[in-house]
Design a protein that fits this description.
Layout lengths: L1 H18 L3 H10 L13 H7 L2 H27 L1 H9 L5 H21 L12 H11 L1 H18 L2 H18 L4 H17 L1 H9 L15
Helix pairs in contact: 1-4, 1-6, 2-4, 3-4, 4-6, 4-7, 6-7, 6-10, 7-8, 8-9, 9-10
Length: about 220
């Protein structure tokens, strides 16, 4: 039982540290000498990187942040596919390890999201977790991930507002998970993760209602304090 608990605890701790890698902050500081926590919205995500540093660093941050979420979930599935893990589950009296892996996977996913927004390396700050959430979705169900990306792209094409597109994507994936009959664990992840992502965008929502949220390619008219 102790070994079984240690394996699952290790998976969740690893998920946090993957999520907490401050990609945007590191690229800004190491390659451009810029403190992203003091620029624009103060976020270390790809959108603020785009506004501050440009397209290439933003694309790099986007891809790495997606990869963080994907790796954390795939690591869970890979670990549960090992015969060693199955033997430990049996010895620990776990009746349905195949079912349990879905719950561990979505828990790891939620922890990645928290790690991305509350990184231990940069004073418990971070990004909005949109890219990492997309990476998690690709590991859970790539078809729904593409559908969510489609919703994001459609709203972005119409509004030119990244934050609004992210919010619609968060709402859309929750609805898609339910209507397509995905496992309950996945549905809970989509709802909980979506609520958290939307909550992280509360300042953006305020600016959207005020009409001051910058569109794609624009910068914030006021900097963070």
């Amino acid at each position: 039982m102790i070994e079984w608990l240690l394996i699952n605890t290790g998976l969740l701790v690893t998920a946090y540290f993957l999520g907490s890698i401050p990609t945007g902050y590191a690229i800004g500081r190491w390659f451009y000498g810029v403190d992203m926590l003091a620029e624009g919205s103060g976020s270390t995500g790809a959108t603020n990187i785009l506004r501050t540093l440009g397209k290439f660093p933003a694309l790099l941050v986007l891809l790495i942040d997606i990869l963080k979420g994907t790796l954390a979930v795939l690591l869970v599935f890979w670990t549960y596919s090992l015969s060693f893990t199955s033997e430990l589950a049996t010895n620990a009296g776990i009746q349905s390890p195949d079912l349990l892996q879905y719950w561990i996977a979505i828990l790891a996913g939620l922890i990645v999201i928290i790690g991305h927004t509350k990184s231990i390396w940069i004073g418990w700050k971070g990004g909005k977790s949109v890219a990492s959430s997309l990476g998690i979705l690709f590991a859970l169900d790539w078809k729904l991930a593409l559908a969510t990306l489609g919703i994001f792209a459609l709203v972005l094409a119409i509004s030119r507002i990244v934050s609004l597109s992210s919010i619609f994507g968060a709402i859309g994936i929750a609805i898609l998970m339910i209507i397509t009959g995905e496992p309950l664990a996945y549905q809970i992840f989509a709802i909980a993760g979506g609520i958290y992502v939307i909550w992280r965008h509360r300042s953006n929502i305020d600016r959207i209602f005020k009409g001051t949220e910058p569109k794609l390619g624009e910068k914030l008219t006021t900097q963070i304090q």
